[in-house]
Design goal:
Blueprint lengths: L2 E2 L5 H6 L5 E6 L4 H16 L4 E6 L4 H6 L7 E6 L2 E7 L4 H13 L4
Parallel strand pairs: 1-3, 2-3
Antiparallel strand pairs: 2-4, 4-5
């Protein structure tokens, strides 16, 4: 199950993570966010080398502002404490896996 990220634990859990972090900005009222949730769960199961985490935009406006999130869902990929890629809006599993392959598995930063 994806880890919940807050302003309080962001630096430790995302920036300080030894593993890459795939971070999903979402909201309970957003249909595309609901559609993305099972995809993120599959990605988490299939990629144990990555931490999958979520940010509820309604509960964490500071993090939402920090990354300029204006549309959701928004998926951000962090490696070694740096943002390496992102995708906004409806995403397929293949698109997100492509981000992981390009930035993590193939070593492109």
């Amino acid at each position: 199950m994806a880890k919940e990220i807050t302003a309080r634990n962001f630096d430790r859990e995302v920036l300080g993570s030894k593993k890459p972090v795939l971070l999903d900005f979402w909201a309970s009222w957003c249909a595309p966010s609901k559609n993305l949730a099972p995809i993120m769960n599959e990605i988490e199961r299939e990629n144990p080398e990555i931490t999958v985490a979520t940010v509820n935009v309604d509960e964490e406006p500071d993090l939402t502002d920090r990354f300029g999130i204006m549309n959701i869902p928004a998926v951000l990929l962090f490696k070694d404490g740096a943002l390496t890629d992102f995708a906004i809006g409806n995403q397929t599993k293949d698109t997100i896996n492509g981000m992981i392959d390009d930035r993590i598995k193939n070593g492109r930063a």
